[in-house]
Amino acid sequence: MAKRLALVWAMFLLTALGAFAGDVAQFVNLGFSADAKYFVFGQYGIAEKDSVPWADTFIVDVAKNAFVPKGTVSFKGKQAVDPGETGLGALLDAVETGLPQTQKLKIDHLLTGRLLYILVDGADAPDSIEFRDFQTSKSFKLELTQTATPKGNDISASFSIAVTVTDKEGKASSFTVGDAAFKRPGVKAYHIKQIILGPDGASLVFVVQREEQDTKGNNIRYMVEVVRPK
Which of 25, 76, 98, 164 could join 54 in a cystine, given CB atoms 3.0 to 4.6 angstroms apart? Predict the structure, then answer.
């Protein structure tokens, strides 16, 4: 237990270097199971309205692209923190609370897959993305389509991502990520934050950043869509 938490601490501290106060979540890749059937991620931050740290962790069934039963843990601190705090402690508490489940599923926090794409903090988020994975010689082309629907003082938005993968022989395969018909209340916009190749070399995790409406501005939260292209 102590060794596992020490490894988690080391990984989280690296992530925390880029964190800052405010109601802007930080995304953390918490690893896959040894058989790559499950993926775990977290988000954490400081609530703008009361300066209290909070965190969520989620276990995703890769094949189903859905959370596992009792696979979501949310934690919120009991008191406000000083300026400059990141909320990292809340994430550690959430991870510790979810340990029985992650241990049961044999989650390895160091088995994080391979990062194929990342949107650097502060950079403009493009809707069209093209890149090449030099390890597999595959080319990726993505087109994000989203629709926001204002309704009085409220808003909702949906998204889908058209993906085309071309292998080194020039054979292309296409699939869609997300659901253009599903509108999430309170969401103003979506951005592709990361794309992760699972340790099985087949699963793709699309990390999507959500801009959520708030009376004081935009909150940032994260979700994932997991696919196994045929």
Answer: 76
